[in-house]
Design a protein that fits this description.
Radius of gyration: 14 Å
Pfam families: Ribosomal_S6
GO cellular component, one term: ribonucleoprotein complex
Family: Belongs to the bacterial ribosomal protein bS6 family.
Number of helices: 2
Protein name: Small ribosomal subunit protein bS6
Distance between the termini: 16 Å
Structural class: alpha+beta
Shape: globular
Keywords: Ribonucleoprotein, Ribosomal protein, RNA-binding, rRNA-binding
Strand content: over 45%
Number of strands: 4
């Protein structure tokens, strides 16, 4: 039997050079996208954090963690949008065990 939905966790890092307003816009964009395609269980803006290693010669980034439930097809589309969004430095989507 095919799965109709699963629980996921998304962590992404936004470039601090974007400024407060644009960071808020990016967070809002992904919050809206997740809510339109699933159920957003938790959104935690972890804020400015030091990176483990330099990304694009930058030592810091703005971390955001989202936990959501959606159909198994949605994370691939979400990942595609994250990769083409200007300002997103890194992202990772994982399935949360049952």
């Amino acid at each position: 039997m095919a799965k109709t939905s699963a629980n996921y966790e998304l962590m992404y890092i936004i470039d601090l050079d974007k400024g407060e307003e644009e960071i808020s816009a990016i967070v809002g964009k992904f919050k809206t996208l997740i809510e339109a395609n699933g159920t957003l269980n938790e959104l935690e803006e972890m804020g400015r954090r030091k990176l483990a290693y330099l990304i694009n010669d930058k030592p810091d980034g703005y971390y955001v963690l989202a936990r959501f439930q959606s159909a198994p097809e949605f994370p691939a589309e979400l990942d595609r949008v994250l990769k083409i969004t200007d300002g997103v430095m890194r992202s990772l989507i994982t399935v949360i065990g049952e």
